[in-house]
Amino acid sequence: MTTNPTAAILIIGDEILSGRTTDSNINTIARFLGALGIDLREVRVVHDEADQIIETVNALRNTYEYLFTTGGIGPTHDDITADCMAKAFGVDISEHPAALKLLMDRSIAMGWTLNENSRRMARIPHGAELIKNPVSAAPGFQLGNVFVMAGVPKIMEAMLEDVAPRLRTGARVLSRTLKLSYVGESAAADALREINARYPDLSLGSYPYGLSLDGAFGTHLVVRGRDAEQVDAATNELKAALASVVEAGKARNPLASFEEITA
Amino acid sequence: MTTNPTAAILIIGDEILSGRTTDSNINTIARFLGALGIDLREVRVVHDEADQIIETVNALRNTYEYLFTTGGIGPTHDDITADCMAKAFGVDISEHPAALKLLMDRSIAMGWTLNENSRRMARIPHGAELIKNPVSAAPGFQLGNVFVMAGVPKIMEAMLEDVAPRLRTGARVLSRTLKLSYVGESAAADALREINARYPDLSLGSYPYGLSLDGAFGTHLVVRGRDAEQVDAATNELKAALASVVEAGKARNPLASFEEITA
């Protein structure tokens, strides 16, 4: 369990904190890391404010093996992420020749003139390696264990493709999900606790849905872990326990049931 | 600007970090706080892990005027938020008579027997005030400047109704949004920077959309601030500047245009 790489995400952007935009990058990166067996341990969202960004970057990059940031690398005055990264690492920042070429090539392809503002996107901290942006050319960059990516979800997702081969991977987390319908979450709590106590390397979680008095309700029970045999054994034990729970639950609600689902 | 209350959000839940669930509570709370003139300064997402929760709660409650947490107050073994709050504040925790009554009343109404696991949801740190849960009865609680709410979005949203009257409010942030179409973000960067420099109390942001080579693309330009006259004046200056930007942009793409939108 302890040998998997750890990671954090830092979302940089007033638009999330103001409520203007609903973040979707956290989930995209969380799934990406899960598939690589990298443990996402923490997420933070901060303002476009230099001191807060620098302090947070240094806290997270020193705590986790990898830090992924999104946002603040565009052409406008509130795009301060690259400068903040340079300050956090104590390195200089200047126009990166390969980054500038990427921007110029795209300008030519689009029939544009590269203006001074767009050209700002070629400013990269010294020592950084570029991250490809197949969508709109302006690159992200990797500085040490920090991966600096765009905030626009489509671009961020494309950048992850270039990031993946650079990461140390771990044992992928496997999961199986049982859907318990028309039975309250608390009815399954004993089984969850007891089985988890016998499988301390696994994580058994329960996530209720539809809690209003009308309509369907129930709980998703998820068995997660890296050892397939253990996950299967615990799932089978949970199924046996749920059979009893459902049997007792039918007295209260004849619709009580459970099934395994792919979630 | 500095007299508005500040706030942070702490999302407690493996299901967000594992990628199983996409968080929607951040956006709900962000909009709720924005409407009350409370500045959301930071968000963190952590695991169902006692040490990390306690440390994070103490860091955030001592930095910001309010802290809102979601998740981990259900009936199962991984619901450890209430115990963590008691530890973070150095107070005891035990069954709260009013909370227990709420759970029992609901059990009776539903024709259920309240089991030991559900009864755990009546354990509340000493000194806390309950937060009403009109959806499924099990209450949240307020301990000092920390508001502990459910993770299920429907319940969390309902709890905010009971929280709102307890909060000191500030000057609501006003915003106006201009949609610049078929013109790159960088073309507006000069205007944004110059106008923001003349209105330092405002925040001018730009959020590109549709950055692929095909299809529609452009930028949303947002003027935000608490002084309506300043917001209007800056928006008018931005409109004048965008008229020139669009005029120049038409040479590149005849579809170039801008309009004010309600966003």
From TrEMBL, chains A, B:
Residues 8-170 form the MoaB/Mog domain. It comes from the Bacteria. SUPFAM superfamilies: Molybdenum cofactor biosynthesis proteins. It holds the Pfam family FLAD1_M. This is Molybdenum cofactor synthesis domain-containing protein. It comes from Asticcacaulis taihuensis.
